[in-house]
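The passage that follows is intended for readers who have already worked through the single-chain material. We present the inputs for a multi-component assembly, then the predicted structure in tokenized form, and finally a short commentary. You are encouraged to pause after the input and sketch how you expect the pieces to fit together before reading on.
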Amino acid sequence: MKPFAFSRPADVDQAVRDVAAEPNAVFLAGGTNLVDHLKLGIARPDLVVDVRTLTSGEVTDLADGGLRLGAGSTNSEVAADRRVRERYPVLASALLAGATGQLRNMATTAGNPLQRTRCVYFTDVTTPCNKREPGSGCSAVGGYTRYHAVLGVPAALPDPAAPETCIASHPSDMAVALAALDAQVQVLGPTGVRTIPFGELHRLPGDDPSRDTVLEHGELITAIDLPPAPAGSRSAYRKVRDRASYAFALVSVAAVLSLSEGVVADVRLAFGGVAHKPWRATRAEELLIGRELTEDAVRAAMAAELATAQPQPGIDGGNGFKIPLLTRTVVATLRDLTETIR
Amino acid sequence: MDAEITLRVDGVEHRLTVDTRTSLLDALRERLGNTSPKKGCDHGQCGACTVLLEGRRSLSCLALAVAYDGAEVTTADGLAPAGELHPVQQAFLDQDAFQCGYCTPGQICSAVGVLDEVERGWPSHATEDLTGDVELSHAEVAERMSGNLCRCAAYANIVPAVQQAGGVTPR
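Having made your guess, compare it with the prediction:
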């Protein structure tokens, strides 16, 4: 592991100044992803600034009826919080579907959405990877693509040598629920505070796959706010994986649904395991709102949502299976939420 | 780069100077001679290094020692300070819940954490009603202990051991 200086400043303002002043500095919170990356040589900082105990570890009520998750609250504390379990079951379920008890005791609210892809080529420093080494190429194209994206990828087979190519998926379960809940991300940076709608936090690869989010160097998430759950809504998270426990999603679905006499009054759908970012299914949502909730209507909405989905070929048969699997998982998730789906 | 830290391990305070790169696991094993937590994968995947960190089961391989300056650490060794076995340790013996024993200290610390989490009413992925009571069923124990791998596959006896320690008749 490359040597690094370590500091724990007195407060978050100093932490932000310290990271902003050193181009090769990183924030450390729970460390479950970063410390592994230090060992693997994926992260090679000169300065590690520990903010684990500097941000709030509390879940607090907001005046509008929502909840504020302090950046330093652990995944296990948030999943166990009675207000989260009662009002945001999609979030509690997503957290509990991720990682293990030990990891959830360490991982934090701000750190979880910022965890990096589990693409095996990103993790293997001996292979080219545009996310890890910008411009080096993408080893995943035509390789082991079982955990890779089918949405937000080019219509044609990507060029593995091109500097913008990346077909990695985002691994977080929590982030999928936060996308469906329209969470708001509170950020402190060198020039002040700003609020980022959760759906705008993560990026598609664009022309720079090395950047997972829109956060600038030195910007620190201080809290994630949950708006009040829509009146009369129910929510659920469903994850499909290769093992019954402790595995990343092949596909996952977060759904928040409000029905009025069998008709969809409001629906929010977000998908995990299928894109470079938590995928908010706005096209499917538009098509379902105002419609009677039938399996045919859900399948038609998903056909529209997945019109641009692009299966990635691969050494294990590729990941085309995700496209029908995702539609079936959406149907099952909405069925979990209502008896009226036919 | 070095840093001076204090760790309170199994009730005893230690001051030591560590390289900032030192994991809590390496500090315990290599610096303090406490070989109870084991290095399995060293990447947070196997659970052999599980300790109780400020009372919560945690992976000592993914914790930088310098980030836990002043922390209270309990290893499986420290669960039996007076030589009297902890109920979880006794249950592992009673149920024959290990073969080679390498993963066992991590399994035991994890099980102590599981029982505390169940006591607090924390749900798991296996809990059907997120707001209801938690029963220490086979499915609950299997899900909650899924972060502790056993290459001897003693799982069939680990689950009953955790149930016994939790006051539930193993089945």
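Commentary: The first helix of chain A runs from residue 12 to 21. Residues 5-48 of chain A form one domain. How closely did your sketch match?
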